[in-house]
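Figure 6 in text form: structure in, sequence out.
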């Protein structure tokens, strides 16, 4: 008799993953294992992306197996442009499928949007731990969507910033963000105002052309570049990309998917996993960029943690 898979809603995923900080230790291990090659036990191809040209959308397929967790997953994620602030349908939607690796049985179907938001923010926090300036007082977030909230949550848990700033193309959304989150957030009227003097900058926008320029960035600052996940999209200009020390989650993926990397011609210094392993240095004394594209194994780690928590509470 076949087993009925569990179906976990966004609320149930939230319940079993209350804090993104829970993801930091297993994600550090997964990133290091990924950068160790085949002996690290992480098997994942670069994501497959199917354009839905008629509707300006994309379907991404992201499978992975992690030997450390003995976990097998795939994520299906859709992204549609120009949803607009009045749309009730989010620009990104995702579902994660968790399988029993020994026989391929489907164990669970989970809302993937919460997983994506929390694991992406956790990886940015890991990068920031290694790459931020030693004395970091000002955090700047560019963008006010789901990723802005998840990054703010974990960054205010993990780090002690004296000031947090936010900018968004639609100022009302930035003001809503500042009114919603716990803690004081300064709403800025321009990107330049927001980033001037900032020690850590997070870009989580839907920009397709550069919005962050090197001449505005404080020397020695660290940037987590999370948006611009297509090869023809940009968030950062050439000056910033070429002058900063560039770290990525996956070199293979960055050279295929990141417009910031491809169109600037910037040279990748290291994968984040190589820094975690200690085989490449963290140049926190220099301006650094972590280009985050998101990896399937990150979803695998999160899905396994959530499923184990759910199973133990049945």
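Output sequence:
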């Amino acid at each position: 008799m076949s087993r009925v898979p569990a179906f976990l809603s966004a609320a149930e995923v939230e319940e079993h993953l209350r804090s993104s900080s829970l993801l930091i230790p297993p994600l550090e291990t997964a990133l290091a294992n990924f950068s160790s090659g085949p002996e690290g036990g992480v098997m994942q191809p670069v994501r497959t992306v199917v354009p839905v040209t008629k509707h300006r959308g994309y379907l991404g397929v992201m499978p992975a197996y992690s030997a450390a967790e003995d976990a097998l997953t795939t994520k299906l994620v859709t992204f549609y442009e120009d949803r607009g602030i009045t749309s009730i349908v989010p620009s990104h939607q995702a579902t994660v499928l968790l399988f029993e690796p020994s026989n391929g049985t489907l164990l669970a179907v989970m809302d993937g949007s919460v997983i994506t938001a929390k694991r992406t923010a956790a990886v940015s926090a890991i990068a920031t731990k290694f790459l931020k300036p030693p004395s970091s007082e000002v955090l700047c977030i560019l963008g006010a969507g789901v990723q802005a909230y998840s990054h703010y949550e974990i960054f205010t848990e993990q780090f002690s910033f004296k000031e947090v700033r936010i900018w968004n193309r639609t100022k009302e959304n930035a003001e809503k963000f500042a009114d919603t989150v716990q803690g004081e957030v300064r709403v800025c009227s321009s990107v330049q105002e927001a980033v001037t003097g900032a020690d850590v900058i997070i870009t989580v926008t839907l920009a397709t052309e550069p919005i962050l320029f090197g001449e505005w960035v404080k020397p020695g600052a660290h940037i987590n570049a999370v948006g611009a996940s297509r090869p023809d999209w940009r968030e950062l200009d050439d000056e910033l990309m070429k002058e900063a020390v560039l770290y990525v989650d996956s070199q293979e993926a960055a050279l295929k998917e990141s417009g910031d990397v491809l169109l600037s011609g910037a040279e990748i210094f290291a994968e984040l996993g190589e820094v975690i392993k200690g085989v490449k240095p963290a140049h926190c004394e220099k301006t650094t960029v972590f280009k985050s594209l998101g990896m399937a194994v990150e979803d695998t780690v999160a899905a396994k943690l959530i499923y184990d928590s759910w199973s133990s509470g049945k």
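Caption detail: The longest helix spans residues 112-131.
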